[in-house]
Amino acid sequence: MRFRSGQLLCVPLLAALLGCKKEEVQVYQAPKDMAAPPPVMASAPSAESAPAPAEAGTSRPPWNVPAGWTEKEASGMRIASYSITATDGRTADASVVPLGPTAGSELDNVNRWRTQLGLGSVTEAELAGLTQAVPIGGVTGKLYDLVGDKPTLDDKYKARTLAAVLSVGTATVFFKLTGEDALVAENKPKFLAWLKSVDTGDGGDTATTSAPAPTATAATPPPGMAGPIAPPPSTGQPQWEVPAGWKSVPASTMRIASFAVGEGGDLSVVALGPVAGGNLANLNRWRGQLGLSPVSEADIPTVTTTLNLPGGDKAIVADLTGEGAGAGKKMLAAIVSRADRTWFYKLTGSAALVAQEHDNFVKFVQSVKY
Amino acid sequence: MKRLLAPLTSIRLTVTLLALGIAVIFFGTLAQTDDGLYVAQARFFRSWFSVFSPHDPAWKWIKIPLPGGYLLGTSLLVNLVAAHISRFKFAWKKSGIVMTHLGIILLLVGQLATDMFARESRMSFAEGEWRNYSEDFQKTELVFLSDTTDAAMNNVVAIPDSELRPGTEIRLEPLPFSVRVKEWMENSEPSFRAPMMQKTNAPQASDGIAQNFDFQPATETRTMDSKNIPTALIELVGTDGKSLGTWAVSDWAGEPAMAASAAFSWSKQFGADLAQRIHGLLTKPQTVTAGGRTFTFQLRPMRYYQPFTVKLLKTTHEVYAGTVSAAEPDGIPKNFQSRVLVDHPTVGRREVDIYMNNPLRFGGLTFFQYQMGREQAAASRGTSTLQVVKNPSWLTPYVGCGMVALGLLVQFGIHLTAFVRKKKTA
User: Fold this and answer.
1) Could you tell me if B400 and B386 lie in one domain?
2) Which is it for the CA torsion B411, B415, B418, B421, positive or negative?
3) Distance from A4 to chain B by nearest Cα, in Å?
4) B162, B193, B264, B341: which to substitute to probe chain A, counting the most A Cβ within 10 Å?
5) Total structural domains in chain B?
6) What is the mean pLDDT of each run of 10 residues along chain B (426 residues)?
7) What residue ranges define each of the domains in chain A, with the CATH number in brackets?
8) A190-206 in b/e burial notation, b at 16+ Cβ within 10 A?
């Protein structure tokens, strides 16, 4: 029978098919990811959260394209690409590439560009000698002007690279013009004018103001979370009167403000959304930190006092003296519940210090104008 | 030989297997209500044996053992092949039957190959963005990224989540350290460690995002419209055996859409500006320096890179006229369409429209239109998600069905011709 051998082959084939589906560890090279865009509820950029550059291919930053530069389809990591062709066929290529926090060191990048031009690597010390300051929009960036020392293009022309580097928070944007030496040199004034025309936002001379991207882009929300987002509550910091002897110190993570009070005392101001865990949970957590036993909801009026504030708000104040593990420590905490936020003021330190600062603490809480 | 094959060639076996197939499909479909599609498929169809048991505690004592899809498919195939070997003798007048049976064999083998080799993933982007990879719907991977001599490239070491089981220690040559898996949560829930809590509860790990977040195991989800978001607690150990630290790696941090989803819920709880700060802490890159190199690592959806890029040029979202109302602000969708530019370094570039029933087939992959939306912040920019299916045996059902149809036609034709001839001579 003619088909037998073919039919019998099916069985081992079947066994082979069944034996191979497990994923394995993989090692490969892949293009770097772009800096992740900020989340959906992005509000006004702050110094800590400078907007990342747009992902590759997102709306292009506004700049003036120099005359004679022809726009090309941006591909790969590029968000913009231009070509320049001389009448005799010599070419140069301009590009903009934003990279995330893993953009590599400046030295690595410069040495890579040098290698492409047939030049040797430089050291960190030599790099400084190659760096020039260049205005990119309202911000100052770094410029490298590198020329090859032998004809590498068609064995006829030397190559040249003009590269401007703009650091934006944790991201880096590279503006590059590379091509035949004389053509690039001829286009250098245009390149510098192009850099200057980049809209970097408010034009402030700090690296953390704004990326060239015109708008902060939002991540695509996962299914099920589409819908309008309520406008964020006011982000303005309230006004207050700081008592004499309190020293403002940098606020960390969630704190709105921090003050060093006397010898080892710490005052924190934290604002959370209207749902902030509830007064009882916060009170019992603080009590736990000072070695005190938890109380019930009914006990709150007996273990706290109410402080009337200007404007009709009220603050619940807890005056806690440590016991056991928390002996010798004291905490004064005030909770002000408002429609948009719950504000927490907390002074911690040695029992003597906190007792001494009691009146200042009350005055401070009362002085806050929301 | 015939005696040996006799039990395998039985037509009773064929009928029994088909009856069992009906039972497996019935109970497998029933199980989908509680287990969800993926789990039910794996339990009943992609298995050798299974046991059906209702989820209702009152009926949980019922346990029905069933053959799995693999066992039924293989048995049917063996039955069919054995029947051929022992019964059929090739003759032209039976060529239609042979072709029909070969078609059925091809369908069975093709289905098995699909099950073994087919892979579904998704490619999400906004207008103007490009991708050269798709991401798995379910699986994740722990990746270690380090710089290469090319500033635009990364060295990637990707460990699939199937390897990340508690207690395992993974040593890989490209990494100057080993990875000890301390805990694995198939689904997890992050909670922000408010500064005032940091003194009372110790963080879960010594470094990285665990300083600001606790991750708790969450009930595994099995429904189609939700996914598990895993987290692992890992320790990296240097070649000298010294610990480099412990970290939490989470899909909450490694998948931008998940981090945005968490930030969205925090924005309701804490206000938008604080939520953004918390989001920044969650997505802060985690790094470790060993052997003179710095590695950035994260747990992210498993990626499948392609040798070409796909750029989303334009999205078209049409609804039926007159269906947009206050009650139905999105209207009734009529057409979702993505115009993409496919750019392959050697094949070239071309623009294609992808919409329902008009997928793009390129590079051994099929791109189907899957989801469409608009960005929240830049509402003018459309977003699209394409389902990317790799199925090397996608042609087998077409060829198999064609062979069956052709075989039946041939066989019918042979009988008809014989009948007509017989009638003529009579």
Assistant:
1) no
2) negative
3) 6
4) B264
5) 3
6) 76 93 95 83 90 87 92 91 81 88 91 86 89 91 88 88 93 92 93 64 88 88 78 94 94 89 78 81 92 93 91 88 75 87 85 92 92 64 90 91 96 93 85
7) 47-197 (2.60.120.1690), 246-367 (3.40.1000.10)
8) bbbebbeebbbbeeeee
